[in-house]
Amino acid sequence: MHRMIEAHQVWKTFGPNQVLRDFELTIPSGCVFALLGENGVGKTTFIRGLMGYLKFDHGHVKVVGLDPYRDTLALRRRVGYVSDSPAFYEWMTVAETARFASAFHTPDFLKNFADHATNFELPPRTKISALSKGMKSKLALALVLAADPELLILDEPTSGLDPVVRRSFLESMVDLAGTGKTVLIASHQIREIERVADRVAFLKDGRICEAGLLDDLKEDIQSLSFARRDTLVSLPFRESELQLLGATEAGRTTSCLVRGLSKDLVSRLESDANIFDVRVSRPSLEDLYVGLFASKKLKGTANGSSLELETHP
Amino acid sequence: MTTCEFLATEKPPRPWVAILRKDLRLLAVASGLVIGILLMCQLGLRLSQLYYFPDLYYGKREYIYTFWFANAAPALIAISVAGICAFEYHQGIQRWTSSLAMTTRQSLFSKLLGWLLISAVVHTSPTAIAIYMTHMDQGYWAWGDLVRNGVDAYLIGLQGLLFLIVAMTLLEPLLGFLVGSVLLLCFQLILRNYPAVFELANQEVNQTAYVVVQTLLTFGLVFASYRVLRWRWGVGQFSRWIGFYRQGIQTAVIERNSVSWSEELGRIGGPSRLPFWSLVSQAFRGQFGLLCGFGAAVALFGGFESIFVHFESLIAINENHPYFYSQLMGFKAMMGFLMAGVLGISTFSMDRQQDRFQFLGYLGAEPKNIVLSRLIVTALPLVIGYSLCLVIPVSGGQLDREMVLRLFTVVIAMPFVAGVITGLIFRNPIIAFLSGFLLLGVIMFTPLMFHELLSHELKSQILNPYHSLVSAGFGWLLRLSGIVLLLMLLVQQVNHLLKRNRISKRITAALCVVFASTLWALFDTL
Amino acid sequence: MKFNIDVDNGVPIFEQLIRQIKFAIAEGVLVPGEMIPSTRELAKQLAINPNTVQRAFTELQGEQVLEVLRGRGLAVTAGAKKRCVSARQQLIVEQLERVIAEGLRSGLEPDNLRNLFERQLNKSARQQGE
Prior knowledge:
The structure holds 3 protein chains of 3 kinds.
Chain A: E1 3-14, E2 17-28, E3 32-36, H1 43-50, E4 58-63, H2 72-78, E5 79-82, H3 94-102, H4 109-120, H5 133-146, E6 151-155, H6 163-178, E7 182-186, H7 190-196, E8 199-204, E9 207-213, H8 214-220, E10 221-228, E11 243-250, E12 253-259, H9 263-271, E13 275-281, H10 285-293, E14 298-302, E15 305-309
Parallel strand pairs in A: 3-7, 3-8, 5-6, 6-7
Antiparallel strand pairs in A: 1-2, 1-4, 8-9, 10-12, 10-13, 11-12, 14-15
Helix pairs in contact in A: 4-5, 5-6
Chain B: H1 15-52, H2 61-91, H3 93-99, H4 104-137, H5 143-170, H6 173-193, H7 203-264, H8 276-286, H9 288-314, H10 322-353, H11 356-363, H12 367-391, H13 401-425, H14 429-454, H15 459-462, H16 465-500, H17 505-524
Chain C: H1 13-27, E1 35-36, H2 39-46, H3 50-62, E2 66-69, E3 73-76, H4 80-105, H5 110-129
Helix pairs in contact in C: 1-3, 1-4, 2-3
């Protein structure tokens, strides 16, 4: 499979803040790839680095086969980028903005733009300053789509938009993906991501902590929950038997995200006198997200020896 | 047509054409303002100079002013260019344009080109006309002056462009403006201290630097320090204090409510009033940012004034020359004027705008006490400034205390009173500000105008230092209110008209120009 | 036809698509020979990933519910209805299994459970009769 974005051992530090640490990511072409993570975890930094707006301290990065910092111009002609708060000249009208942008693209640009703008119902003679936030986002997307990019990078594109606008935004994004283009999207809108993405990567502490096909992740990782009659009695399994990704405890109920859950272990749990209400389910993306980011330490005991399971091995 | 379909048939412009068109359009608006400012500066200076030296520049005085102020144009347009750069950078527009594969080089070069083009229009043609006129009449200036003068003006403009773009883009724009101006000033001082480096300097031409730096610093210092203080330092600390104060008020409300409950229960005691001193402290905290801003502006200005003295002596204007004093005192008077006016206006109209009068009234404060508490707070710095004026000898002993007292009355007390009045009348601070200054302009200007027109024999009296000072302050007052007026016209009115789509943009712009030139012509006849 | 995708119900999206298409065929909403929207169209309409739609279609083709009409797209096969009806029954059986397991786990006796089932069945039949 052809690789759209390759990043190896990327480091980036802002003053005392180490934003990206040994960041590894590969994005194959023709997929909708979602970057997920809490605010300030380095998504925007990574994306800006991909577009050549900033230079990574260290690392090897290739976007559409180009070095973003050296071949910036060639790269920007082939990659479309919509930032979280798109800014244009406020005094231009929509049509003027398109004309201005068309100077830097292929002759088809205006024709494509006219199609997309008609689709999005953008008013051509309205000044940018009079457009709502949703309209500005639509305009940004229309401008990017009109350039017919190979790779579309969207940074929080739907934050602050109303559901209708968000939906039409997603529809056009999906439409682009349907033509075989690659989309990289950073977002907090888990439900949307779950619909549109086929690959996801979770960022934590400046590096990727989980990445892969969304369906594979959901198959691999299971959400296990059980209740304990006595929380001081040991759990019937060892730490090494499964990979615990995250856990939350509410009263006597423990729910955790685990990888490599065996039938044997489930039956052991079910037959344990201390444990009841054992449920194993396929996690939704939201479960994965919350499990990975909002989890605490799971305190349990196994075989009489006290052990503390960390959120991540 | 409601859709963008018509675009499909259009031909895209060339990249350079698109970039240049956009930058020129932005710069044209900005330079419209610059021209307005220059016209008003020229007018103000002309008026004040008329009082100091009716015979100093016999004959073609207006050409000299044209010459001076046109020289400031490249530097002032450089501010607009730097402002556009900073605006594009800080608003994130630069990220968009660069995502269109527009290079930084293209973006900067087109701005440089725009700066050159507009500077040529605003600077070179008026100077050429002025030189032509004087050359024809008296042979006062030669064409070589145009070149020398142009080189000087463009060099300062280019330096300003460089410093301001870097500073305003890297720093927060206003702070960058301040830093850039200071850098320019230092650079100029260094250059002019070494005439060997800067051979082109002569007395006339050096006025360019003087005018440029003066204008830059006046606006830069007052507004930048005020806003920087409010933003960088003021807001956090300040809102915390406000928060504490609100809590205090809430406690007072609760107490008052409990008192009125107790009244209902038939006990002794009327509703408690908000104590007067708590109103004063609230007013003080409300104005704290503004007071600090002005304090800083005055302090900074004091520092720069000493540089100016040095600067002026370099320009070979004798320190004992009345022109020198009148300029310096004009600055001082303007600062006091601005401070008094803005304090008076902002305190009251802001209070009104934020419905603080109602709020405090609801809490049980009497209107009389509210107004009084604010008067105390805003008049305090003025009283301090006044006493400083009395203690420190001004103008090398040219003024006695009695004159300072009169100066204070005219330059500080009058704008303060006018500010308070308009602040109480208008809710919107901007409108209050504009009308306050216009009101003052009318009050102060009318008698002098008649003075000038009617009584020629009183000219000797007008020329006494006190009058010089007042009129120097006046010069600045006029410049400022002129700028404000133009700003109002250009920004508020144009916007207003455009929104309603009644009059087209070009007609409005033409009207603005006609209005400005009528004003100019009107004052010109004095 | 109208699809209803719910990302939260624990069933993969492509699985939901498969089920809904099968149900639609079993109900007779989609008849043999009828064209199905293209991958791109359906993805756009539902705002879901095109690869997900493709996966559902591939699986339906494997089960011979859909077939490729060259140059025209996907259509419902002739024998699809029968297969879909049995698939639907299979799903109902699975759901019943789950309900019974839940009931047993909650401590109900098989007889109690059977009574509950009978009562509910009668009630539903009566409602449908009305």
